[in-house]
Amino acid sequence: MKLKTSAMTILAALMATSAVAAPTAGQLEDRVFGSVFTEYYYPDGKKQNSAEYNNQREDWGYGFNVGYYITDAWAVRAELLRQNLKNNLQQDVKGNRAGIDVMYFVPDSYMYLVGGVKNITTGKSVSAANIGVGANVFATDNLAVFFEANRFQGVSDGFKDAGLKLGMSYVFGGASTPEPTAAPAPAVEAPVAAFNDADKDGVADEQDQCANTPITDKVDEVGCSIFTEKSVTIRLDAQFDNNSAEIKAEYKADIERLAEFLKRYPNTDVEIGGHASNVGSAPYNLKLSQRRADAVAAVLVNEHGIDSSRVKAVGYGITKPLASGNSAEAHKMNRRIEGVVTATVKDTVKR
Hints:
Blueprint: H1 2-16, E1 31-42, H2 45-48, E2 56-57, E3 59-69, E4 74-87, E5 92-105, E6 111-120, E7 126-138, E8 143-154, E9 160-171, E10 227-239, H3 252-264, E11 270-274, H4 282-303, E12 311-315, H5 328-334, E13 336-348
Parallel strand pairs: 11-12
Antiparallel strand pairs: 1-3, 1-9, 2-4, 3-4, 4-5, 5-6, 6-7, 7-8, 8-9, 10-13, 11-13
């Protein structure tokens, strides 16, 4: 028991020292290692007092490991140990222990954790799971001294053994050294061409196809103003006295506005539609509505200079009444002139 206590003290001292550093990252990955060790094994009291286990007592053993570093932090190893224990009569109780361990190495440290499964044939063939902690101190890049303490738990028999290892490991091969990367050549900056933009629309002069665009206009990629289309409409509604084709003075301004619209949008035409009330004969009212349409058309052509080809006068008589019935109000509404002009215009899109 004193030996076990001394071994635990050695482990604590190894874990507290920082005289020797572990290999740095990338130095152990994908390398194989082998170990030889001696172990002081301490059987559970159940085994010491059981004839089934030949009353085995604590004593030494020796063995070896073969392992593989999957990464710098993880490794697996296979273990084979020969145990030379004694019983309470100081007789030899010999057997083997074999199994597999997984090891985790704490980053930036020489401590590691270990766990695995074992088959033990000393005294009686049994299976056990083990868990432990150790310290792996490298003397060189390849050679390390390790100390390890494990607890063994019987799978079916329920015993609790302990073991303390002291050994040496050798890591085969050398750490791969990455090829030095040549420093990239300094980038050569291309000369920056002067940016000339006389009309300040954001498009260089050599690409600008529309010089002197208004600074308020939004432009396309070649510097021309962007337009949006919309429809504008003007209506003329004028009424006449009964049995009259004379234009009332109050509608002169409306006809003038229609003429200005036609001048502003020269690609438009207008139809002047004359209408009559349902008083008198239909043939007479047809002629009367035509005279009313002709009167308005004449004002547009003769007084406002609208080309006659753009003005069409049509009498509809009583065929398109605005109001039905024979009341005085209905007749008044139907004695009328209608003219509608719709134009599509383009407006610039502003910034």
